[in-house]
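Morning - zinc ion inputs below, output right after.
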Amino acid sequence: MFERLLKELKELERTKQVSVPIHADKDGYLDRECPNEDCLFQFKVDEQDWKNLFKDEKIYCPLCKHEATSNSWWTKEQLELAKDQVTKHIKGRIDKAIEQGARDFNAKQSRNSFIKMSMSVKGTKPYHYILPIPSKEEMQLKVQCKVCDAKYAVIGSAFFCPCCGHNSADETFDNSLKKIESKIKNIPVIRKAVEEISKDEAVTTCRSLIETSLGECVVAFQRFCEVTYLTKAPETKLKFNAFQNLVIGAEYWNELLGESYQNWLTATELKKLNELFQKRHLLSHTEGIVDEKYIDKSDDNTYKVGQRIVIKEKDVSELLKLVKKLVDTLRQK
Ligand SMILES: [Zn+2]
Ligand SMILES: [Zn+2]
């Protein structure tokens, strides 16, 4: 009665491959993950470009530029789900062989014997159909490489094109800023639309959009500075998020170029930039509640300790303008 099982086991031994399909997201992007254990950055690539443009020998991590062959970029989730699917599939095939074996046994018994013996197999799940692995939610920031045309998507920012390794700090910065600009531009429309449902919600939604925009602006600037700095001085070990802090950032630029923010902006502009950076700091660390440090560092006397800061669309627009001015200057250096 075990012939079928033995046959199936032999069959499995010969099976070199069980394919598990992986689905792209709504926008046609596949999930990927950097195999560098220190990085593990997750990003997405356009499914068609992955087939047609990317080279099997070498794919780059958009964040750390680690290089590896194209079969090393599965995400942890994909690998886990695939393992699960394959295990279920193999178990299904074995269960099926055992069940069939039992059926064969029973069929033979009933024909040949006075004594009825029958065998039943419990708890088996014959056959498991391999399910495709779904993809994660779409990523907002989509980048198309201006060198090789490959399309990829990231959360936050990325530095390198995964297909050709081109340093994409410029495109990423421009894309991030465009995204923030359009968000701010659309606030009145969003406000009106949400007001139809609830006035309270309209206020909170728009406030949150404006406040996150301020943060995104600082992050975009930080990333741009970091990549630009490391391109010029690759040996430098930069402090974590060094350029989110204007004082530390300025020291780095001074060291490298002999000039810095105070040379590139007017005193009024620099004061405003500093105030907005400090406000962003409050939003991410004290939920916007003013503390002693804020007043010291920002020189902003319009608030008392314990108050909550108010951010308006015009603050974001102002920060966009200042950050752009700095980046334009840095691009000339
Ligand atoms: Zn990486
Ligand atoms: Zn490229």
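Note: Strands lie at 29-33, 42-46, 59-60, 67-68, 141-144, 151-154.

O.
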